Amino acid sequence: GSTFRESLSEYHYHCVRSLDYSSNIIKRARLNSNISFLEADIIDFSSNGDTSKVHTSAGEYHGNWIFQSVLPPPGYHRAKVDISLLQHFIGWEIETEKQSFDPDTATLMDFNTSQKNGVTFFYVLPFTKTKALIEYTLFSEKLLETHIYEDALSDYIKDRYGLLKENYTITRVEKGAIPMEDRKYPQWYCNRVMNTGMAGGYTKPSTGYTFSRLHDMSKKIVTALEKGVKIPDIKASGYRFRVYDMMLLYLLKNETDISIQIFRDLFKKNKFDRILQFLDEETKFVQELRIFSTLPYMPFFRSIYKMKHRIFTGA
Ligand SMILES: Cc1cc2nc3c(=O)[nH]c(=O)nc-3n(C[C@H](O)[C@H](O)[C@H](O)COP(=O)(O)OP(=O)(O)OC[C@H]3O[C@@H](n4cnc5c(N)ncnc54)[C@H](O)[C@@H]3O)c2cc1C
User: How far are the Cα atoms of 30, 241, 299, 300 from residue 214, in angstroms, in the given order?
Assistant: First the structure.
């Protein structure tokens, strides 16, 4: 296959470990005497007038507002879902004796592998010449047996880097399954209890990105609370980007070869910075048209036709 290599100029690519992220937030929260911590199971939320309540295994607590990313909102199971895929992966952080990696270059999507289980690719994030995270990822409906991910990883490490199992140590394993769905999420669990995070539908269906969207949402809420104004209607994505996500989801589910062709053209014919800006939903319509003009257009028309019952009714 072909390789497209490019340096980022406007955007930066960061790797943040979830443990560092959460311990940093907890550390900063602990500095504020008006924040208390409680570890308990959350059973439900309710509200009464201007008061909201969380029901936990350690009792009930109330407040003016609750922001929750724990329970699926009411109606979750009844919401219309046309396409339900998973982004599922196993990643190994490995350490090698011989210098094997280029720490200046990450591999975002290496499709050089069997595509029989759906769109499948490897991701390589080198930290040093001897340490890297290598992930085997699929966009498909079903999880696979663990040994299939593991065999794919060891074959890839052997084929691409010439490393046999005895040539490296696995220092950490990462495993995940992130939903890629066109489900609609309500902003409110009940009066004064707002859904956030994955439970609020903040996971971008076509990429799984959630954190940056959560940060944007949190800023909007904090600004409203500080100003003492009503919390605005917040949508995880605007209409245009929901439509793009639906089109791509349709193709990922139904047309593996064409999806790979689209990724190939996307990376070959567009600047990485622009692609990241697009995935962050920060492009203007004209820029999006320019991106689409570099991609095969018939599959997108087909996906619009197949998803028209959603696209023309507000997505
Ligand atoms: C391996 C992996 C890698 C990921 N990488 C990225 C990434 O690089 N970028 C990105 O944007 N997103 C990534 N994601 C998606 C990621 O899950 C979300 O970005 C983020 O964790 C969403 O935060 P959240 O608060 O909605 O959900 P979570 O982080 O899942 O938090 C929900 C919390 O609620 C707790 N909980 C659940 N039920 C109850 C209950 N009844 N009572 C009390 N507590 C409960 C859970 O234990 C959990 O701690 C990744 C996900 C996985 C699994």
Answer: 21, 16, 31, 29
User: Is the model's pLDDT at 14 over the cut of 90?
Assistant: no
CA 198 to ligand 1 centroid distance, Å: 7
pLDDT in tens, 62-114: 999 999 999 999 989 888 899 999 999 999 999 999 999 999 999 999 999 99
Query: Ligand 1 within 6 A of 197 CB?
Result: yes
Question: Does the domain formed by 86-179 have CATH 3.30.70?
Answer: yes
CA 26 to chain centre: 23
Closest listed residue to residue 184, CA positions, set 236, 146, 220, 232: 236
ipTM for the whole complex: 0.95
- Give residue limits of the domains in the chain: 86-179
Separation of CA 195 and ligand 1 centre (Å): 13
